[in-house]
Amino acid sequence: MLIVGAKGFAKEVLEVCNQQNELENLMFYDDVNDDIGNQLYGQFPILKSIEDAKEYFQNIDNRFTIGIGNPSLRKMMYEKFIAIGGVFTSLISTTAIIGHYNVEIMEGVNILDGVKVSNDVKIGLGTMIYYDSIITHDCFIGNFVEVSPNVKVLGRAIVQDFVHLGAGCIIFPDINIGKNAIIGAGAVVNKDIPDNCIAVGVPAKIIKNRND
């Protein structure tokens, strides 16, 4: 397995790999940061060029996941590593509770400890769900969504692609969160949020349109 990124969220993903006994031939990829050396924790090699990653896919293991939180960067890394033969792979913590009925989890999803996902839920490509978040029944979570710790998404809510849900926010039932929206930490969303908007507060109010 190759983890794209070698800081921050990549360290959280490493713990899930440890739970899943996926440490053999595990490597990281980081061609941006010069201060990380050649190994993480003195154990896991850090690849530094796309040519090295391509060789890894061809000769060792073609699976990769993304250890970067930002939704747009996750999409960029997905496209970059798929193009050289990588297979986008989900990692789900052994302590997460996933419903048994009509749950669809797409490729490249990262689900961390303590997450609960109910029945009739779809989670899109490359989405990340952080510690102790709850996705209740009949919810739809789009592609490359970032769900921060302790978020609650309640029945039939829709969270569109590239949304960032801040820590501890609550999305009420039947709410639609538009593409590229950002919901602030601790916000309580009881009305639909259009595309590209930033909303904060209790109840959540739109404070900015990202297009502006």
Automatic annotation (TrEMBL):
Binding locations of substrate:
69
Q: Name one Pfam family in it.
A: PglD_N
Q: Name one GO molecular function term.
A: acyltransferase activity
Active-site residues, as the UniProt record annotates them: 137
In the record, the note on similarity to other proteins reads:
Belongs to the transferase hexapeptide repeat family.
The portions of this protein that span the membrane are 81-101
Feature type site, description Increases basicity of active site His = 138
What keyword terms does UniProt attach to this protein? Acyltransferase, Membrane, Transferase, Transmembrane, Transmembrane helix
- What is the official name of this protein in its record? Sugar O-acyltransferase, sialic acid O-acetyltransferase NeuD family
Annotated PglD N-terminal domain ranges read: 2-81
Q: Where is the signal peptide?
A: none
Q: What is the lineage of its organism?
A: Bacteria, Pseudomonadati, Bacteroidota, Flavobacteriia, Flavobacteriales
